[in-house]
Amino acid sequence: MKKNIHPIDEILGRYKPARREDLIPILQEIQEKEGFLSEQAIIKVGTHMKLSTTKIYGLATFYDQFRFKPKGLVHLVVCNGTSCYLNGSGAVINKIREEIGIEPGETTRDGKFSYEVVTCMGGCNNGPLIMVNGGYTTGVKPEQIPSLLDILKINSASEIN
Amino acid sequence: MENLKKYLTEKVLLYDRDVLPAETRKVFQTITREKYDYPVVYVSSGTGGIIAGSGKTASAVKSYLEAYSPGASVVNVGCAGPLNYEPFICVQLPGKNKLFFRNITEEKVDTILDGVFHNDLPADELLGQQGTRDYGIWPGVPFMEELPYFAYQKRCVLSNCGCYDPESIEEYIARGGYRTFVKTIRYYTHEEVCSIIEKSGLRGRSGGGFNTGTKWKSALSSGSQARYLICNAKESDPGSFADRTILESDPHRLIEGIAIASYAIGATTAIVYLRAGSKLAEKRITGAIESARDYGIIGHNIFSSGFNLDIIVRSEPGAFVCGEETALIASLEGRRGMPRLKPPYPTISGLMGKPTVINNVETLMNVPLIMQNGPDWFRGMGTEGSKGTKVFALSGKGRYQGVVEVEMGTPLRMLVELLAGGVRDGREFKALMLGGASGFFLNEKLLDTKIDFDEMSLKGFSMGAGGLVIIDETTCLVDTVKYYMNFIHNESCGKCIPCREGTSRMLEILENVIRKPRSEDSLTTLERFKGVMQLQTIATVMKEASLCGLGQTAPNPFISALEKFRDEFEEHIFDRKCRANVCRGLRTFSIDVDKCTGCTVCAVRCPENAIYGTRLQPYFIVEDKCSGCGICLEVCKFSAVIVK
Would you state the torsion angle of the CA atoms of residues B383, B386, B389, B395, taken in this order, to the nearest 10 degrees? Predict the structure, then answer.
């Protein structure tokens, strides 16, 4: 009978022997798989690489890409590149913060929403730009945010059911 | 498929003479669909296109063609034109020139294709035609290369972008690709390649402007066994997308450039360092590497030349400072991306302590062209000190946004007025931001500066990696400087004090400058002025004492804005006024009693409850309570709210 291998062990198994320069790709793969870096994952990586977990945590917190809380069901990526900023993405981000009540990189308590702010996603002609679970919304205005979030809320609720 | 691969390897890549026989060229025409018996529809599928919805357009085209002409094919190509024209499609009928259409959303597909197939061209979306001038012409349709957006460009690096399917190596080979690389490894020595590049005068395109050939020579002459080549495709400046467009549209030429560069410096491992989150670029470059490996273009003992090469793709984990060479190396080694003191330069001691050459995407894209056409061809373009062309990413408030390429020596004015088409909505031009987050603000006068490394550095600025943001009168410069400072402040790695503390202080002072005057008492006013007086000193200290390029260039936006637009800063500081009405704290709102109908909308929507009045009577705003958010201005249907 084939044993169920834990996905993290599967990733670590591919990096044998793991060198220090493999650390970032390992963490990236884990995040890709799990959506975030859990405490358990960091401990596993530490044991595998014979590296103290504080060192790994120190490295991971330095980079913006790594998150330590799971993503929400609805994950918004808001562009704050120069073009989007000139077109008013600052107000959009403020509005989102106001509406959901969390900072970028955090997740709401009910696990429904999370958002992150990135610099330039490539839609510079029609900013501000928001990416929601893979789909793009262009030319977003702050006053559209509440209705946009409402629609997303309903959609995510129907997905669960 | 196997046969084609064998044919292309033996008859094309390993073919000895420069000019290929007519029979091979015929095969090429089939591969590139130049001579094709069925209609072909090309759909632009870069990030810009996908955001505009080109994925849906492509499937709509596919289902239309299935019904209309089963032999027809749909090809995904890279990004060619301005972003405003996305989704951008091109239709090619047998024996006819290609026709280009802009803004073809899903629902427009049927009308457009109906029109083309029945010779009734839709005028609104039609952009132009491309191809021969003797037969197959569509009468009355302008040629693409005559449109202003293309006519003023000199597309060398971008020549393949948007022309071929980036996921097909056969098409790239049929366009003459990889032959230069095979020729190079078979007939040239390492030194010769370095000399050719040195002679061509190619300078690093990431801002520094160091001669690429000289850099390679210094790495080659170091007595180490292992060497590395890193292609810096990081480009994380807010608002730069030139490198990403290249990666998405023409990954194969980049690989060819990397391969030639690796051969020149004798590196057996090359690393493409990608930006976090650009999934499409990662997919295309990984796919391109796979197919090149399949063809034996990279791998062990390439075409029996004794040269080994492996190309690895690594995605950057999200830190702006990793664009700096030594920080990039630290991050590749699995450490925190913090820069170190130079020298030793990476060409002497880089990745794993071995000599490492780090080149920008655009620089490497030039390499195959130089090897193919010779250094004199490259020297023929540009100015005395800067040869070749330069790619810019236009964004901001211009009419067109997109990636453009012009010859060195072109005045900046041409980019702004002709390629970007001036400022949109008939507004007035205010400033040009050149070179991303640590770039420079230029005023109208400086637009006559030519694109040239030396002339620009003489005038006190540099072109950076080629981000170009057009700023109009509705943008506040103090606010924009604050935005850039906030970005750098977040991205500062915190290793050296001038950068870590300097960015915090500068941000704090700039925030004070745009703070609401009413919330100030005498002490905070004094502090605001004290801060302003120290701004310039902080900027100078940061410039001189920071460890790496990030800190040294961080005050550039501020210094250049203060120099060129001093009056705007003074207006904010002394008159407490923002002429563009952007800075929230400095806006005051009032209601025009004659226009207000007392509809209560503003009072209901005001988050601070600062608007009072009686229904159907003019309302008024209590200034002490007002936070300057501007919601009342947006919601008022009678334009009764006045902002000052």
Answer: -110
B631 CA to chain A: closest CA distance, Å? 9
CB-count exposure of residue B288 (10 Å: 0-12, 13-18, 19+): buried
Give B293: exposed, middle or buried? Use CB within 10 Å, 0-12, 13-18, 19+. Answer: middle
Are B277 and A118 within 8 A, CB to CB? Answer: yes
pLDDT at A161: 44
Of B17, B18, B161, the C-alpha closest to B83 is B161
Domain CATH number, residue B320: 3.40.50.11540
Q: Which of B318, B396, B436 comes nearest A63 by C-beta?
A: B318
- Hey, which residues does B389 pair with through a beta bridge? B407
Whether ipTM > 0.95 holds is no
Q: Is B435 on the interface with A (CB under 8 A)?
A: no
For residue B333, give both structure tokens: 């080694």
Given a cut of 80, whether residue A6 has pLDDT beyond it is yes
The residue of chain B nearest to residue A126, with distances taken between CA atoms, is B84
Range of the domain at B132: 34-145
Q: What was the pLDDT predicted at B438?
A: 86
Q: In A, residues 65-104, which contact B (CB 8 Å cutoff)?
A: 65-66, 80-83, 85-86, 90
CA dihedral of residues B471, B476, B478, B480 (deg, nearest 10)? -50
Nearest CA distance, B9 vs chain A (angstrom): 33
Per residue in A103-135, pLDDT tens?
Answer: 888 888 888 889 988 888 877 887 789 988 778
Nearest to B454 by CA among B218, B208, B213: B208
Torsion of CA A78, A81, A87, A93, to 10 degrees: 30
pLDDT in tens, B40-60: 999 998 888 888 888 899 999
H-type alpha helices, B295-341? 325-332
Does B230 fall in a domain? Answer: yes
* Same domain? B492 vs B536: yes
Say yes or no for a CB contact (<8 Å) between A81 and B483: no
Closest CB from A59, A64, A129 relative to B51: A129
- Note whether A122 contacts B244, CB cutoff 8 Å: yes
CB B371 within 8 A of CB B193: yes
Contacts of A66 in chain B (CB under 8 A): 317-318
Q: How far is B435 from chain A (nearest CA, A)?
A: 11
Contact A28 B317 (CB under 8 A): yes
B499 with B513, same domain: the answer is yes
Q: Please write the tens of the pLDDT for every residue from B54-80.
A: 889 999 999 999 888 878 889 999 888
Domain stop point among B346, B379, B412 = B379
- Which residue in chain A has the smallest CA separation from B312? A25
What local confidence, expressed as pLDDT, does residue A159 receive? 58
Q: Cα torsion at B446, B451, B455, B457 (round to 10°)?
A: 80
Q: Is A133 on the interface with B (CB under 8 A)?
A: no
Domains of chain A, first to last: 7-62 (no CATH), 74-160 (3.40.30.10)
Q: What is the mean pLDDT of residues A56-67?
A: 92
Cβ-Cβ contacts under 8 Å for B341 (sequence gap 6 or more): B547
What is the pLDDT at residue B1? 60
What contacts B174, CB < 8 A, 6 or more positions away? B8, B27, B28, B31, B32
Please, what is the end-to-end C-alpha distance for chain A in angstroms?
34
The reply to whether B384 falls in a domain is no
Q: What is the pLDDT of residue B257?
A: 96
Residue B303: which region, alpha, beta or left (left: phi > 0; alpha: psi -120 to 50)? left
B64, β-bridge pairs: none
Q: How confident is the model at residue B256, as a pLDDT?
A: 96
Whole-number average pLDDT of chain B:
90
Q: Is residue B528 part of a domain?
A: yes
**B543 and B468 housed in the same domain:** no
Cβ neighbours for A45, distance < 8 A, ≥ 6 positions apart: A8, A12, A23, A26, A27, A30, A51, A56
